[in-house]
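Q: What changes when NAP is included in the input?
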Amino acid sequence: MSKKLYEIGDMPPLGEVPEQMHAWLIRAERFGQPTAAFQKEVVTTPSIADDEVLVYVMAAGINYNNVWAGMGVPVNVIGARNKAGETEDFHIGGSDASGIVYAVGKDVTNVKVGDEVVMHCGIYDRSCPWVKKGGDPMYSPSFKIWGYETNWGSFAQFTKVQAQQCMPKPKHMNWEEAAAYTLVAATAWRMLHGWESSSVKKGDVALIWGGAGGLGSMAIQIAKAVGATSVAIVSGEDKFDYCTKLGAKGCINRNDFDHWGMLPHWKDSAGYAKWLKGVRGFGAKIWEVLGEKRAPNIVFEHPGETTIPTSIFVCETGGMVVVCAGTTGYNATVDLRYLWMRQKRLQGSHFANTVQCNEMNELALSGQLDPCMSRAFTYEELPIAHQLMADNKHPHGNMSVLVGAAEFGLGASGKPAVAMVHPTLPKGDVHTSPAPYPMSTPLPGIAEGEPITIADDGSKVRDLMHRGIISCAPDETVGAVAKIMVGNEIHAVVVMDAQGAAVGVVSQTDMVLARQGRTPDQARSLRASEVMTPGCATCDADMLLSDAVSLMTGRRMHRLVVTEKGQPVGVISMTDVVRKIIGD
Ligand code: NAP
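A: The predicted holo structure follows.
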């Protein structure tokens, strides 16, 4: 062994693994913004197991995952691993890379020392019973994202990977380009090709959200390769050229429409009609771009909450909306009528298995997949690249950072079978979306995670409730109920039957909905029983205030009828809670 530690850019002789290596480390005590969280350190080079490979990293890809790893939210990845028995008190991130194989475990057959490889980020336990009996490793409880959920990612001179993660590096790409595409392209591949009869086919129409983004730019190329026609959605016309050069038939500027967000309530006929008008206009725009009246057979989704209602509406009968993220929010709303009557499929998808990663990589090897690298950084600039992402100031496309490669532009040898198009990325683009959560998010109640501590001062509903119930009879007119509401400065009236049982609530929303499509006189003469929301959500006076709030937020309501010994005795409302918060 000639040296214990090699400097960055000073490549050890092939196959010689130094005792120590340089790496960018995240430690719990400096969780926070990327420029503080990532620090350069020297650590012991990891040893490998029988099915593992040690790769000398030439370049690493940058993903949102490690912005969040550095912040320590939504998961403290170091704490989670320590809990599971791993001893390292640091995290080396990096879920994309290109490099050279330096050592292999004794069971490794697919790569040898000296091979130039790219690595995908799907790790699983090969002894998992599900995997052993031939199940998709993506469904294995042992599945993890390398360099986020696991340590020893690509932000170091050497990375430790499973042999199945290694794939041939496209010879025509330089190191930084080769490090840029795998995570997003493999995810897009599974979304488009992983769902049997719904997978994208020649002649299909694919609607691609975020066509100039990391996933979208890959999806356009994957759809093109199979002979499908894609329509890309973007937030500005400056990105049209980029998407069409990648292979989209045409683009739509989402800012030309304003019907985004959760669906209006189906009882809100005016709101629903307005939404329908917006979504129909959007559908007509798809026809215009296609030059024919066809609906997308497959919709490539990741914005989530703001776009899912539209995606499901415009999707072809029998088609599929496939989703791998909820960048704008997780509570996507669905009008079930369209789902069941038109027999559409809403399919979740997460990363990709080994076979799918390799299928995707064939496309890259052949030259049909541009890595869409927007910017490469030096090793020193790694925290800055992450900071740009955290601040939403990074360019569209995929970013890389040099690790072992001494200069930009090295590593390419040979030409692809298919000539590559190198579209120009939109310049000066600003991300308007909130920074997405990491692709792997622990699910409350399923995956292990830090328990959320409920801030609770022990207040009970009885401490804040209004005693007494302002009520009306079921056959009282809406006009009379409105007077009760206004006269008492309240937002809802409880409907009580002759036996004194609370049978429903007339809220302000119910009143406004009742007015839709009617004259004021017609609305006024309706009966409370006709407009009320039937049933009555109740809570006991002794319930914790925080539990009552959760009950209201979960049901999207603003008040609960309070009971004592099963009898209604008062009301607690969100307004009361707001008053408590502001100290009124
Ligand atoms: P990205 O490069 O930031 O692209 C996201 C695109 O979404 C942007 O280009 C933006 O394009 C578009 N967008 C933003 N806000 C939108 C809105 N309100 N409505 C419609 N479109 C909007 O990110 P990415 O790499 O493509 O990743 C996208 C999401 O997938 C992230 O949340 C990421 O964490 C997740 N992901 C999941 C997996 C998985 O395996 N589950 C893998 C990779 C990524 P315009 O502004 O031009 O419309």
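Observations recorded in class: Residues 64, 183-184, 187, 209-210, 212-216, 234-235, 239, 254, 302-303, 306-307, 324-325, 327-328, 350-351, 396, 432-433, 436, 439 surround NAP (CB under 6 Å).
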